[in-house]
Write a structure and sequence with these properties.
Radius of gyration: 17 Å
Low-confidence stretches: none
Strand content: 15-25%
Number of strands: 7
Oligomer: single chain
Mean pLDDT: 95
Shape: globular
Bound molecules: guanosine-5'-triphosphate, magnesium ion
């Protein structure tokens, strides 16, 4: 029996995405820019965390951000308060960013002029996991108010990310956040995953995250570009 047409179309879309993602990765590597994407459920704190990150990195690094949402320029307006170059990608009905959207958004930017490029994906714990954007590092964010078993319920988004960031940490006590249970949930779906605990509101935990980013950039640049 032949495969349903929808499965075949989906496979082709993913294949096409991978081709563009590979081209983007080569472009980023050639430019010397380190690219970080952010995924999470809606409202976990991606934009708040990113605005803080852009602001704190800027005295030392050249940074820029792309941000995806189905509609509105709200997040781009918020991120632009950091004074970094920012571009909004509106996806209409799509619940994720695709590599072609990133490529298109970058057309007028010279990525050689950047140290870090951040890409905030559409808030969704399912769709973004299948789409490579050519990034060097994918962060999955989860706020303390979401429930400790999110990694168990949505393993793919944790599996397809490199680092976890627990956000809104200053609210932990109020919502009786159970750190040990969360840590075990993440560990069971993605053994050895590095986890940062931060509050973008108070600044808690931001220093160690920024040190980690600086180290990642240094490591990437120490690899000879062939
Ligand atoms: N208390 C507290 N609230 C936070 C923190 N970070 C974000 N928030 C709040 O959480 C809400 C959602 O934050 P956003 O940064 O817009 O979340 P987002 O993940 O970008 O949301 P989408 O782009 O819609 O998916 C806002 O009301 C923020 O003020 C934090 O560290 N502490
Ligand atoms: Mg946002």
């Amino acid at each position: 029996m032949s495969e349903p047409r929808l499965v075949e179309v989906r496979r082709n879309v993913l294949k096409q995405n991978d081709v563009i993602a590979r081209a983007l990765r080569a472009q980023f590597r050639g430019s010397g820019v380190f690219v970080v994407s952010l995924v999470s459920s809606p409202g976990s704190g991606k934009t708040t965390f990113l605005e803080k990150t852009l602001t704190l990195l800027q005295p030392k690094y050249r940074v820029a951000a792309l941000v995806g949402d189905l509609a509105t320029e709200n997040d781009a307006v918020r991120l632009a308060r950091s004074k970094a170059p920012v571009k909004q990608i509106t996806t209409g009905t799509l619940c994720h960013l695709e590599a072609a959207m990133v490529q298109n958004a970058l057309q007028e930017w010279d990525t050689r002029q950047l140290d870090f490029l951040f890409i905030e994906n559409v808030g969704n714990l399912v769709c973004p996991s299948s789409y490579d954007l050519g990034e060097n590092l994918r962060l999955v964010l989860m706020s303390v108010t979401e429930g400790e078993d999110k990694p168990l319920k949505y393993p793919t988004i944790f599996n397809s990310a490199d680092v976890a960031v627990i956000t809104k940490n200053e609210l932990s006590a109020v919502v009786e956040f159970d750190w040990e249970t969360t840590r075990k949930s993440i560990e069971s779906v993605r053994p050895g995953m590095r986890i940062f605990r931060v509050s973008a509101k108070t600044g808690e935990g931001m220093d160690s995250f920024l040190d980690f980013l600086a180290q990642q950039l240094q490591e990437q640049r120490s690899i000879p570009r062939t």
